[in-house]
Amino acid sequence: MTKHSAIYPSLKGKRVVITGGGTGIGAGLVEAFVAQGAHVAFVDINAAAGEALSASLPGTHFRACDLRDLDATAATMAELSGLLGGVDVLLNNAANDDRHTIDDVTPAYWDDRMATNLRHQFFVAQAVLPGMKAQGSGVILNFGSISWHLGLPDLVLYQTAKAAIEGMTRAMARDLGADNIRVNTIVPGNVDTPRQKQWYTPEGEAEIMAAQCLKARIQPADVAALCLFLASDDGAMCTGHDYFVDAGWR
To answer: Which of 3, 19, 175, 176 falls between 20 and 30 A from 154, CA-CA?
Structure first.
């Protein structure tokens, strides 16, 4: 958070679970919710990164988890929910945007990419919903991607999964609204993280900047700022929609 960042009193003490929280955007989310006084638990497949981040943020709970393994995922969500005493906010952030061509795709790779980028969002949400329903409130923020809106190359399965997430969000918001559970999609643009830097040359980054309305790199904190608003009571009437943080990338 910067010195000008908003503080949301309604987030203090909230019980927050973040997937893919060890690095990149996810780490920014963990840091932002901790700064609001929330109780934060997070998972990541990268055990070393997650343990290092948790050690730097006393009071957080980290568990290494491969979200493709649904049995392990269910057990981990149950453990974290127990540690927190329930879940108020879920951020379904975990994903992997490895590049691939259409010719590279096999049935096994298809299944792996859907498990990596789509399936776990549903089942992690399913795991925390009983508690949210029982308490009569909750927030689920699913993470999509600008990529399929732009039709970027060499990402056909990633973009298929991310497009599906927006449909899933709409359906969940309708089904869960009567329980006072809000569901939205966060759609980041090209965020300045070490992972994204591996995909772009300086020339490629310049092309992205030229295509953005705002001529600055998006930071994880910019994505987190939107999530904080939507998770807080200030976003109480926001559900079933897609919220972009893309600097106007067209």
So the answer is: 19
Instruction: Tell me how many domains the chain contains.
Output: 1
pLDDT digits (tens, 9 = 90+) for 130-178: 999 999 999 999 999 999 999 999 999 999 999 999 999 999 999 999 9
In the three-class reduction of DSSP (H, G, I as helix; E, B as strand; rest coil), residue 191 is classed as strand
Question: Does 4 fall in a domain?
Answer: no
Give me the active site residues, please. Answer: 158
Any domain includes 89: yes
Question: Rounded distance, CA 227 to CA 19, Å?
Answer: 14
How much of the chain exceeds pLDDT 90, in percent?
92
Read off the CATH number of the domain in which 83 is found. Answer: 3.40.50.720
Task: Say what percent of the chain tops pLDDT 70.
Answer: 97
Of the CA atoms within 13 Å of residue 158, those in its CB half-sphere come to: 20
With beta carbons less than 8 A apart as the criterion, state whether 219 and 191 touch: yes
What are the phi and psi torsion angles at 93 (to 5°)? -100, -25
Residue 123 neighbours by CB distance under 10 Å: 14
